[in-house]
Structures are given as C-alpha cells and as structure tokens.
TrEMBL record:
GO terms for cellular component: plasma membrane. Keywords: Glycoprotein, Membrane, Transmembrane, Transmembrane helix. This is Tetraspanin. It is found in: Membrane. SUPFAM superfamilies: Tetraspanin. Gene3D superfamilies: Tetraspanin. The chain crosses the membrane at residues 12-36, 56-77, 84-108, 217-243. The keyword Transmembrane helix applies. Belongs to the tetraspanin (TM4SF) family. The gene is Tspan18_1. It is a multi-pass membrane protein. PROSITE patterns: TM4_1 (PS00421). It comes from the Eukaryota.
Length: 247
C-alpha cells in the first residue's frame, strides 16, 4: 500500500512539474515577444525603465521555471533525493520572489493611472520628433490604436513648446485618421485634420482604448499567475512528501 502511495505521489509530482514546465515555456515566449515585438510595444517597454526591467524579469522567470519543471520531472521519475531537494529549495525561492513581485505591483499600481500618463505626456512629448524615444513611442501608440493623447486631443492644447503653424491646431499628425493604422498608412485628410476638423481626427484617448483592449488579457494574466503559484505550492508539497518517502 505504501509503495502504491509512493508511486502515485511520484506521478502526481511529474504531472505538476509538467505544468510548471509549460508555464515557464509560456512566460519565456511572452517575454521574448515583448522584447522583440515589431508592432510598437517594444518602444513602450524601452521608454519605461520599470516595464523594461519587468520584461527581462519575466524572461528570466520563464527560463528558470522551464528548467525547473524539467529537473522536477527528472527527479520524480528517477526518485533522486538530491534533485528533489534542489527542486524544493529552488522553487521555494521562485515562489517567494513571485509573491513579492505581485505585492510590489499592487503597491505601485498608482504609477499607471490616467493622471500619471497625462503629466508625463505634457512634460516630455515633442510632437513629430522621431529621434526622441518618448515621442516616437507615443506616436506609434496613437497610430496603432487610432487614439489621441491620454484623454483626447485636448491634452496637446496645454503643451506650449509644441511647434505648429498658425494654420494648424496643437494636435500632432499621429492623431489624424489613416486608412490603415500603421506608419505607412495613408492619411484620410491630413490638412483638414491639422486644421482642426474633428471628423478627420481620432478623438478618443489612448488610456481608455488601451485599457479596453487589454482588459481581458489582464484578467487572463492574473488568473494564470494565481494558477502558477498554486501549482508551485502543490509541487513543493509533493516534492517533500516524495523526498521523505524514498528509502
């Protein structure tokens, strides 16, 4: 009976580690996509040191979970006490690091408010200056998501250092409607847009558009994170039980 219980524990341990292996592969793939993505998200990450660091942390965590799941599977199948102990200590450190990161993300969530982005836009935005990373990033975001500013075109009215002629309003070219939402897309009517005719402008703010676009994925990522933490916890329990059961 004890042997059957140990065998069951071994295969459950293998199953949990297989899920950790898959979770690590997903995080690794997501981290690589964020860093090399050519659609403009890469510039957003590069412009924000916090996001830039987070992307590489995600990449490192994915690689560690990928390797850890593989080692856990090997330790369970071969009933190797050394591998199981190493697995337990390593996954405990990862579990505590992920828990700490989640707590810090919750504490500093106010840095991602509408007011924060509005303040940063008015302070650093330089219109069509593509040599400036911040401005180029915002232009890419506004073109990709067919939006304008954080709250709307009115955000640019208070930016006094924006150069524009007397025939143009403060709205930048990136806020003008295009036939295709990319930098190569043709303007519907650029002159009318810059002259202030609203029907040729993207009037909706980027904060609302992006929030609506990623709302589903945020909940999915949160559910995935909770699932990964639960799997890691059960894997540690099974690893210790299997460790104590091996003669």
């Amino acid at each position: 009976m004890e042997g059957d219980c140990l065998s069951c524990m071994k295969y459950l341990m293998f199953l949990f580690n297989f899920f950790i292996f898959l979770g690590g592969a997903c995080l690794l793939g997501l981290g690589i996509w964020v860093i090399v993505d050519p659609t403009g998200f890469r510039e957003i990450v590069a412009a924000n040191p916090l996001l830039f660091t987070g992307a590489y942390i995600m990449l490192a965590m994915g690689a560690m979970l990928f390797l850890l799941g593989f080692l856990g599977c090997c330790g369970a199948i071969r009933e190797n006490k050394c591998l199981l102990l190493f697995f337990f200590m390593f996954i405990l450190l990862i579990f505590l690091a992920e828990l700490s990161a989640a707590i810090l993300a919750f504490i500093f969530r106010e840095n991602l408010t509408r007011e924060f982005f509005t303040k940063e836009l008015k302070k650093h935005y330089q219109r069509n200056n593509d040599t400036d990373v911040f401005s180029s990033t915002w232009n890419s975001v506004m073109i990709t998501f067919a939006c304008c500013g954080v709250n709307g075109p009115e955000d640019f009215e208070d930016i006094r250092h924006l150069p524009y002629s007397s025939l143009e309003k403060a709205i930048p070219e990136a806020c003008c409607q295009r036939e295709l939402q990319s930098r190569e897309g043709m303007f519907v009517n650029k002159e009318a847009c810059l002259a202030g005719i609203e029907r040729f402008q993207n009037r909706q703010g980027c904060y609302t558009v992006i929030l609506n676009s990623f709302e589903t994925y945020v909940y999915l990522a949160g559910a995935l994170a909770i699932g990964v933490l639960a799997i890691e916890l059960f894997a540690m329990i099974f690893a210790m039980c299997l460790f104590r059961g091996i003669q």
